[in-house]
Amino acid sequence: MFTKHQTLEKVSGPTKIELPEQEISGWRLLNVTSKWLASYFLERPLKIDKDLDISESTFKSPIETEWPENNVVRVRHYKASDNFAVVVLPQRRMTRPNKVQGYNIAPVIASYLATNGISAYEVETPLSGTRRPKEKTIDELITDVQSFKSTIQQAVAEVRSMLDFVAEKEIGIIGISLGAIYASIVYGIDKRVSSACLVMGAGNLADMVFESEDVVAKHLRAYASSHAITREQLRAELKDVEPCNYTNPDKGEKLLMINGLKDRELPLKYAKELALAWVNYESTLLRGGHRSAILTFPHILPRILEHYQRTLE
Prior knowledge:
The protein is an alpha/beta fold. The protein has helices at 28-46, 106-115, 138-141, 145-162, 178-189, 205-211, 215-226, 231-238, 268-278, 297-311; strands spanning 9-16, 53-60, 72-79, 84-89, 119-123, 170-176, 193-199, 255-260, 282-286. The protein has a single domain, classed as Alpha/Beta hydrolase fold, catalytic domain (Rossmann fold). Helix 9 links the parallel strand 8 (255-260) and strand 9.
């Protein structure tokens, strides 16, 4: 159950910043190669402005956890408009201790929107990026069903509280993968958000735990097996954070869902379950899987931009 949001206590900022370079891999050569590929094939085709107005603030999370790093919410504001803004929620990253894993697409999305006249708020979500305790893997942080639920509840509470600080008049939201699950819930329950895009998002968390190839799903599957938890029991446990339970069909016509035909982490049939719960929605299907979706962003970001230009009004 998601309660009324609380006002966030500011820790620092806003401070003007330039976006730091991403550390994509723990391996030096792979990191250099990956950054070159990302720059050449992803960022350059999008013609992103290099002189954006970006500031960073930190807030105290309204939900305190045992990890001090996880109790600070980092928000970057890409200022481009007084009228329109989109909250950007990234995918989960960094599953290995002390190693960065994968490319964070959230700054690219935020920069692209700002380049094209829509402000963006990039929010670092729980147990991701700088909020993940060092020496800990995601398996050690999400140890059971309750910790998984608590992470979702914390993310939703933080985003809703952060909306109090959004100065722009019309607010949209976009989430990628796990971020899309957070975004779907926020869009469904918060009247201040009037448009949404879910990239690689899905519903029916209980069944996904038993079928997904995602590392957290596999860990929870092993936990369920060792504790003799059935699908029906898990469904009952997760009902309070199930995104299909928080849809609002009246807002579906301003929802865009983007999914992969060959997604094994968040299989397409579960994306369809979430879509049907929204009733009305737009949909774009990509030919690849979950991880290959990043290669399509030079093509789908203009589609996402058009969606917000049309629905934020």
